[in-house]
């Protein structure tokens, strides 16, 4: 027993040390991004490389914001990300509740068919979708980036279904005895209890919209409607030598997602731990 007690702190120290090393490897690119954003342009490719800017050039951030319509691109990105995330939460939670709580013939088979769509590469549907949106006269608007997500996403439906299956059946049965319809149970019982899972889905979805480059590049052709990812690419094309400004703008783009994760960290971890307990 004493031998086991002695080994426990060593194992804990080893595991924590390994986690710190892995975390440092993942954090290094972001740290390098911030360091580069604070360097004068002459120091970025200087040999030998210096980790500390001398002196820190905070003016890079102001110059980067002024070099492109940064505020406009940010508002466009927030609008697309918020609207798309709302569509995902609304549609996916409804479908997931139907698959997990409503008993109907063929539900399992249809669920497997829905999961099979996750194996379809998005490049396969890229041209057909573009043709459809072009026929609808949606190209050049935000609608191709938002409207499809109001019809669900297989991955997020799967996550929410797994969480719905962990809810106590007694609560659902009691609500049925009280005369609640399935929609009432979904709205008043299921959704309040699935807040951690909804936060996880919202975070994943919002991050995906925020960082998405391909869809805005394809469907948006008006400079006033560009999102941040497309705006930064345009900035790179116009200012190929200004890596200091590009790193500053990229840091400002990443910062909201990092802050969002830290504010929602407890709920996010709770949702990840609880989602998928049941098969």
What does this structure look like?
The chain is mainly alpha-helical. It has two domains: 2-59, no CATH class; 61-274, Orthogonal Bundle (MetI-like fold), CATH 1.10.3720.10. Helices cover 72% and strands 0% of the residues. It is built from 14 helices and no strands. It has helices at 2-37, 59-67, 70-101, 107-116, 122-135, 143-146, 154-164, 169-177, 182-193, 195-211, 214-219, 228-238, 243-263, 265-274. The longest helix has 36 residues, at 2-37. The protein is globular. The mean pLDDT is 86.
Question: Gist?
Answer:
72% of the residues lie in helices and 0% in strands. It is mostly helical and 279 residues long. Helix 8 (169-177) packs antiparallel against helix 9 (182-193).
Write the layout of secondary structure elements.
Layout (H helix, E strand, L loop, with lengths): L1 H36 L21 H9 L2 H32 L5 H10 L5 H14 L7 H4 L7 H11 L4 H9 L4 H12 L1 H17 L2 H6 L8 H11 L4 H21 L1 H10 L5
Helix pairs in contact: 1-13, 2-13, 3-7, 3-10, 8-9, 10-14, 12-13
Assign an overall shape: globular
Provide the CATH topology of the largest domain: MetI-like fold
How helical, in percent, are the residues?
over 70%
Largest beta-sheet details:
none
Low-confidence parts lasting 5 or more residues at pLDDT below 50? none
Distance between the termini: 37 Å
Q: What is the element string, with H for helices and E for strands? A: HHHHHHHHHHHHHH
Rg to the nearest angstrom?
24 Å
Portion in strands: under 5%
Number of separate domains:
2
CATH H-level name of the largest domain... which superfamily?
A: MetI-like
Task: Please tell me the CATH architecture of the largest domain by its name.
Answer: Orthogonal Bundle
The beta-strand count equals 0
Oligomer: single chain
């Amino acid at each position: 027993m004493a031998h086991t007690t002695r080994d426990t702190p060593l194992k804990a120290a080893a595991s924590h040390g390994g986690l710190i090393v892995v975390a440092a490897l993942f954090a290094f690119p972001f740290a390098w991004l911030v360091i580069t954003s604070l360097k004068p342009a002459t120091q970025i490719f200087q040999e030998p490389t210096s980790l500390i800017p001398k002196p820190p050039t905070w003016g890079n951030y102001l110059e980067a914001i002024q070099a492109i319509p940064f505020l406009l691109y940010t508002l466009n990105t927030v609008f697309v990300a918020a609207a798309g995330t709302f569509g995902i939460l609304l549609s996916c939670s409804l479908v997931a509740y139907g698959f997990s709580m409503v008993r109907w013939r063929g539900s399992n088979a249809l669920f497997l068919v829905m999961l099979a769509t996750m194996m379809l590469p998005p490049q396969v549907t890229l041209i057909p979708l573009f043709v459809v949106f072009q026929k609808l006269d949606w190209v050049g608007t935000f609608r191709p980036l938002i409207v499809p997500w109001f019809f669900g996403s297989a991955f997020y439906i799967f996550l929410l279904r797994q969480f719905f299956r962990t809810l106590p059946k007694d609560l659902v049965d009691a609500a049925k005895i009280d005369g609640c319809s399935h929609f009432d149970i979904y709205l008043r019982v299921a959704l309040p209890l699935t807040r951690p899972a909804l936060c996880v889905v919202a975070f994943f979805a919002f991050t995906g919209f925020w960082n998405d480059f391909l869809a805005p590049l394809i469907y948006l052709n008006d400079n006033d409607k560009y999102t941040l990812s497309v705006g930064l690419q345009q900035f790179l094309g116009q200012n190929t030598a200004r890596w200091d400004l590009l790193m500053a703008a990229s840091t400002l783009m990443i910062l909201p997602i990092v802050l969002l994760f830290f504010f929602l960290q407890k709920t996010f971890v709770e949702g990840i731990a609880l989602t998928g307990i049941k098969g």
